[in-house]
Amino acid sequence: MQAEPIRVLVTGAAGQIAYSLLYSIAKGDVFGKDQPIILVLLDIPPMLPVLDGVVMELQDCALPLLREVIPTDKVEVGFKDLDAAILVGSMPRKEGMERKDLLKANVAIFKTQGAALDKYAKKTVKVTPPPADLSVGIQSVSVSSDTRLNSSTAQSVAMRCGVSSDKVKNVIIWGNHSSTQYPDVHHAKVNVHGSETAAYDAVKDEAWLRGDFISTVQLRGAAVIKARKLSSAMSAAKAICDHMRDIWFGTKEGEFISMGVYAGGNSYGIPEDLIYSFPVQIKNKTWKVFDGLPINDFSRAKMDATAAELVEERDTAMDFLSQ
Predict the structure, then answer these.
(1) Known catalytic residue: 177?
(2) CA distance 145 to 280
(3) Active-site residue among 177, 186, 193, 243?
(4) How big is the chain by its Cα radius of gyration, in Å?
(5) What residues contact 293, with CB distance under 8 A and at least 6 apart?
(6) What global pTM score does this model have?
(7) What domains can you pick out in the chain, each with its CATH number?
(8) What is the C-alpha to C-alpha distance for residues 24 and 19, in angstroms, rounded to an integer?
(9) Is residue 44 scored above 90 in pLDDT?
(10) Angle, CA 232 vertex, CA 189 and CA 39 arms, to 5°
(11) Annotated binding site for NAD(+)
(12) For residue 137, what pLDDT band results from cuts at 50, 70 and 90?
């Protein structure tokens, strides 16, 4: 017997990230090749005509797993009885935009969506909002933010070693989705000719790993915006798919991925009232921070710097909410 359909919401569904995302969800790349889906597409009223075109395209794809597509501009419809929610509906970052400006534009959106999740969605809903500093108002314990795009970027280590990206594991993104994020390969492994080697030993270039590698990952988003005059879409959609699939099916034994999660109870000295990107393992759709990794002085400084930025952005967001 085929499984019952699950209800999956995508916000900002008429936008560029969603356009790259919806086909992968509907054809089974995220929730499995045997899992029927009801897609709920939420956007603002002016975008409903565009959303009608997206619905027609999904219908024309004739995807066997797609049972129904529900376009709407009403949160009570969009968030009702959800199994999964992918919140990409927000103002994208533009060239020259300060993060404070981005926060101010988006914090009210996420406050509304957080309230709607609490009121209308299933309590077991799995939620993937945008980066950690924009998750104000979302109370669900199943919330995680997506730093997979940065993890994928970090696997430039693979290119440096002359192997494919699937030969690299346990790269960590610590902290914020910003220019302070810290891509850490001290615990990463690279499979070279069938043998696992520590990333530092495989790369054999400490100056690059502590210099250009980190800055390239930190500034990648700005570089894409400068080149495209738009924020990341295709790669962002791929990262969202990877992120939600890992939540749904879990991580491999002995491996961890990076996710922005609530920092409560962490063993790494990070303030507990933040959403912060940690190494996590996932089992039975439940994430757990991978504790106990040794942290050297270089990493400690980087981790604390990105935590300080998140504290500042959290306080800024709360100020905006109180106005």
Answers:
(1) yes
(2) 12
(3) 177
(4) 19
(5) 187, 268, 279
(6) 0.86
(7) 6-128 (3.40.50.720), 147-314 (3.90.110.10)
(8) 10
(9) yes
(10) 95
(11) 43, 106
(12) very low
